[in-house]
Design brief:
Length: 262
């Protein structure tokens, strides 16, 4: 079988995207892991299928690079909105279903192979504090830890240690190291399923921004976020003990298009 695929990235968080509206691609764990392998496959942090979904413009099915189906991916969500625009799938805004429910995607503009995308995120009820860290779910579970010098944190070793704590098993947790910087925050993330640091994590950036807003007692607004892969922003409104009106905004770039025999 010849696989037609596209490679996209959202601030360095890279994905294989497949138009699977014909349901021809069967995402076996070993195959997905091979395609995502950076030496033996195409190479990516994850693989995303754009599926037919009655009542919506499409469905988003996301797999981590280990080949296992996972929860919501914020940067992947922005990339699939850009991909849908590239495919001229429907007029915007688009409505789609992901692992955590319905999302809306808006293309704010495009230039060349880069789209500027705003993605709605689900309401968040709030966060809890465990051993000084902040725990919340923004479509995927996240631990947010504030540090003084995020640039020099050993993200892999410290992130892996927290990811496998007994409190978060069996699924584990994503771990974010956050530093207040330049009127916003700088975030580095260890992602479960990738089992490494990624250059950016959309749900992690969202989680970090909401915790930062809560600590700073911001009622609404926009948090600018720097990651190793680029800049994002998170919009929000305070709601009781949680947050609503959450949007993740930033670039999504098409890297290349290819085919592969599988």
């Amino acid at each position: 079988m010849k696989l037609d695929f596209y490679k996209y990235h959202g601030t360095g968080n890279d994905f294989i995207l497949i138009d699977n509206r014909d349901n021809k691609f069967i995402p076996a764990q070993e195959l997905v892991a091979l395609l995502c392998h950076r030496r033996f496959g195409i190479g990516a942090d994850g693989l995303i299928l754009l599926n037919q979904m009655p009542g919506y413009d499409f469905g988003m099915e996301y797999y981590n690079s280990d080949g296992n189906e996972s929860t919501m991916c914020g940067n992947g969500g922005r990339c699939i909105v850009a991909f849908a625009d590239f495919l001229s799938l429907s007029p915007e805004p688009v409505r789609f279903i992901a692992a955590d429910g319905e999302h809306t995607g808006i293309v704010l503009g495009s230039k060349g192979d880069t789209w500027h995308v705003k993605l709605s995120m689900n309401d968040v009820e709030g966060y809890r504090i465990l051993h000084g860290d902040h725990i919340l779910d923004t479509g995927s579970p996240h631990l947010v830890r504030f540090v003084k010098d995020a640039e020099h944190i050993d993200v892999v070793s410290e992130g892996r240690a927290a990811r496998y704590l007994d409190e978060f098993q069996p699924g584990g947790i994503n771990v974010n190291f956050v530093e207040e910087k330049g009127g916003g925050i700088f975030v580095r993330t260890y992602e479960r399923g990738v089992e490494d640091e990624t250059l950016s994590c959309g749900t992690g950036v969202t989680a970090s921004s909401l915790v930062y807003a809560g600590i700073r007692q911001f009622n609404e607004g926009m948090i600018p976020v720097m990651t190793r892969g680029g800049s994002l922003s998170v919009h929000f409104k305070k709601k009781d003990t949680g947050f609503t009106g959450i949007w993740l905004e930033g670039p999504a770039t098409k890297v290349f298009h290819g085919t592969m025999d599988i």
